[in-house]
């Protein structure tokens, strides 16, 4: 399974804000609405980068993409341990991981970003998502 590069978001904007975005697109400042929104988000993230970096460190979050395979989780269970997963970005639990194995291996999940798992694993870990 290919890991996606992006996550789709849906947002609601007031008509005046939307019209202003369309005006900037029409006048060539941005190629389309999505380009404007991505640029605005990046600008805000840059503005608050120090705060985000400190929070990432304080919360002991892994930054980026983290994939958990069946082999990874079986090793954790074999060692008699459980994981406290803390990811800022994308966390993926492979499709061949059973809900039972996920429950045995994962004590808690804190995901700031996106979690890609099967519906069965998501249901099995629902009480461990924070």
UniProtKB/TrEMBL annotation:
CDD domains: RHH_NikR_HicB-like
Domain of life: Bacteria
Coiled-coil segments on the chain, per record: none
SUPFAM superfamilies linked: Ribbon-helix-helix (SSF47598)
Descriptive protein name: CopG family transcriptional regulator
